[in-house]
Specification:
The chain has 661 residues and is an alpha+beta fold. Strands 8, 9, 10, 11, 12, 13, 14, 19, 20 and 22 form a 10-stranded mixed β-sheet that branches. It has an 8-stranded antiparallel β-sheet with strand order 26-25-24-31-30-29-28-27, covered by helices on one side. Strands 32-39-37-34 form a 4-stranded antiparallel β-sheet, with no helix packed on it.
């Protein structure tokens, strides 16, 4: 298996089912990854970066030979579309699980692919390789050999076209082309399987319109915009495109669909795509099993498109922060738990939740790999039931240790426009409200702070060497209140509470504080406006049950070091306890630019002594397969530049110092 994470586990699950032994490869940082532990054999690839390990073709083929493998599955990443790797596998005497290298060479050039498909009478948007021939605006610039939406940019006027084309050419190190930009469109794809005997079977369509950075985060089948007649037209066009390109294997024909029902071919993706799970749910077929069957030279067992059973929706849970330009999040995943999951990595026998993940409790997310942690799929008789089931499970999931896009996914699934099927590729741009945290009410944050403080006190009482059975905060004579100071979603706050002689909550409050000027004399003194009474039904180190004005709710608290992860029906919040006597931290030089995340310096565009404008691009960091720009916050002169291309930096590390003008 020449890939890692979720897709490796997915392929291994089917291999175990059909009696095929498996070989995993792993980098230095993936030594204890789930996909390694689940394989029959595993071969180490020296290094940590993707380029040095999972994309190093010679090392992968050598590993396969060393393990005695007779076939290579490339996963669903870059190598799955690489004609040279496909040819190298075959030349090494092994079976390539994918389309022939000759087909991949054609698909590797998008303009050539579009030309062949257009000749077969499939609708295609025109392409312009010479920017001077663009007839109008806006246009979308694409790399001719790009995959996964990388390097794409919309240009709306002629004045910026030449600069944008040159910039993308540098970024992707290759040719680019332009095509008319069609706004308010849906991204629809038709998953297909084609065998060497000429059979081509489409599996309905998938709606992939909810995207960020031209990459999908919510996928579903069937599409709410496609009726039976349009589905037939899309599937017919997909079959024609597949045959025109000589495609064999598992893939997806991608289209743009406008509000009038007109559609245009985008590309044929020659991989088992990340969203194949929704198709498995509604068709009942194991697509990996069929993919392996085709690779062995077998024929497809079904005479035509299988009927669609119910509705399936998938979300991609990623380690990234949507509210901060999708900044990737690295660290230890202390807990990864989704409730009510019915199965993983294969078609479900009946409607329910399916979780395909590449991580487990204790997994470490680093800067080198894709930020996707898992896919959660809901399959139900109707679209409304699937969306409701999926949103509920996500909201109740425990995702501790890294920032994720969970709240955005929940808000999207519950949004009235999504529920109505009113979605297109601009959905996230039109609805900024979905970027708000799920736990947004002030009262909900206060309850989480109180629960965390009570759980911490219960933990201390349980481990106390003497009188551990006494209620937390109990005194013979009433005195000061119990307090804790947290840094949370609303900033630093103090939570305080008083207990009566019976161990019952007598009063509580949460109020903002300034961590730079903590008034130790004032902490613990109850404010005049205490919050409404709450009854503590029970409190332990990991579970607090509160009765809030007659309504009982349970709050789960998971503490790791000085951080508390609090989950309740109101949402989830992370609280970091602030020490009352913090150690002094070293002060950064004025106008220092520090790394916002761990990553590798990809490009450095300035030199020491250079004068820069406010907003000018200074350098870029690459983390989790995405490039992140670092701009000058103000005009000035580059006084110091301690990094260079290829250097790896950690969060908070100094990147540059500017002397302001």
């Amino acid at each position: 298996m020449a890939d890692r994470g979720e897709i490796a586990r997915r392929v291994f699950a089917t291999c175990r089912l059909v009696g095929i032994e498996t070989v995993a490869v792993y980098s230095d940082v993936d030594t204890d990854a789930p996909h390694v532990n689940e394989a029959d054999y595993a071969v180490h690839l020296e290094g940590s970066t993707t380029a040095a390990t999972y994309l190093e073709q010679h090392a992968l083929i050598a590993a396969a030979k060393r393990a005695g493998a007779n076939a290579v599955h490339p996963g669903n990443g870059i190598l799955a579309e690489d004609p040279e790797f496909a040819a190298a596998v075959v030349d090494a005497g092994m079976i390539w699980v994918g389309p022939p290298a000759a087909t991949l060479r054609t698909l590797h050039r998008k303009t050539e692919t579009k030309k062949l498909v257009a000749e077969a009478k499939v609708p295609v948007l025109p392409s312009f390789t010479d920017p001077a021939t663009v007839p109008g605006f806006p246009v979308l610039i694409k790399p001719d050999a790009g995959i996964g939406g990388a390097g794409m940019r919309v240009v709306r006027d002629a004045a910026t076209l030449a600069e944008a084309v040159a910039s993308i050419r540098r970024e992707v190190d290759g040719d680019v082309f332009c095509e008319p930009y069609v706004g308010n469109v849906r991204h629809i794809e038709v998953p297909i399987l084609a065998d060497a005997m000429g059979a081509v079977v489409p599996f309905g369509e998938r709606e992939c319109s909810v995207q960020r950075r031209y990459q999908k985060i919510v996928e579903e089948t069937p599409s709410p915009a496609v009726d039976a007649a349009l589905r037939e037209d899309l599937c017919r066009a997909a079959i024609v495109a597949v045959r025109a390109l000589g495609f064999v294997g598992a893939g997806a024909v991608e289209f743009l669909l406008d509000a009038d029902g007109d559609f245009w071919f985008l590309e044929l993706t020659p991989t088992l795509q990340t969203d194949h799970a929704v198709t498995e749910c509604t068709s009942g077929y194991d697509l990996v099993r069929l993919q392996l069957l085709i690779a062995e030279g077998g024929s497809l067992p079904m005479p035509g498109p299988p009927p669609i059973r119910g509705h399936a929706i998938e979300v991609r849970i990623c380690a990234e922060d949507p509210a901060y330009a999708w900044l990737p999040s690295a660290g230890t995943l202390h807990r990864f738990s989704v409730p009510d999951v019915a199965g993983s990595f294969r078609p479900l026998p009946q409607p329910g939740l399916r979780l395909d993940s590449g991580v487990a409790d204790g997994s470490v997310t680093g800067m080198h790999y894709d930020p996707m942690l898992a896919k959660l799929i809901a399959w139900a008789p109707s679209r409304q039931e699937a969306a409701r089931m999926l949103a509920s499970a996500l909201a109740r999931a425990q995702l501790h240790g890294v920032v994720t896009n969970r709240d955005l996914l929940v808000r999207t699934l519950r949004h009235h426009s999504f529920r109505a099927g009113d979605i297109d590729t601009g959905f996230l741009d039109r609805h900024p409200e979905v970027f708000a945290p799920l736990l947004s009410s002030v009262d909900a944050v206060r309850l989480s702070c109180l629960a965390s403080a009570l759980a911490g006190a219960a933990d201390r009482r349980a481990s106390a060497p003497v009188l551990s059975t006494l209620p937390s905060g109990w005194r013979n004579v009433p005195s000061g209140s119990q307090t804790a100071v947290y840094d949370g979603p609303t900033g630093p706050v103090e939570v305080g509470y008083r207990m009566n002689r019976h161990g019952e909550l007598a009063g509580w409050w949460v109020r903002p504080v300034d961590p730079e000027e903590l008034d130790l004399a004032g902490l613990g003194q109850a404010p005049v406006d205490e919050h409404p009474p709450i009854v503590v039904v029970s409190a332990s180190r990991d579970r607090v049950v509160l009765n809030v004005q007659g309504i009982r709710l349970a709050v789960l608290v998971h503490r790791v070091g000085d951080v508390s992860y609090v989950d309740s029906p109101e949402g989830s919040v992370t609280l970091r306890e602030i020490s009352r006597f913090p150690l002094p931290a070293p002060e950064a030089a004025e106008s220092s630019l520090i790394a916002p995340l761990p990553g590798a310096v990809r490009r450095v565009l300035v030199v020491p002594g250079q004068r820069v404008r406010a907003g000018e691009l200074l350098l870029t960091l690459e983390a989790m397969k995405l490039e992140h720009p670092v701009h000058a916050p103000s005009a000035g002169v580059v006084a110091s530049l301690p990094v260079h291309p290829g250097a790896e930096v950690d969060t908070g590390e100094l990147l540059a110092v500017l002397d302001p003008e």
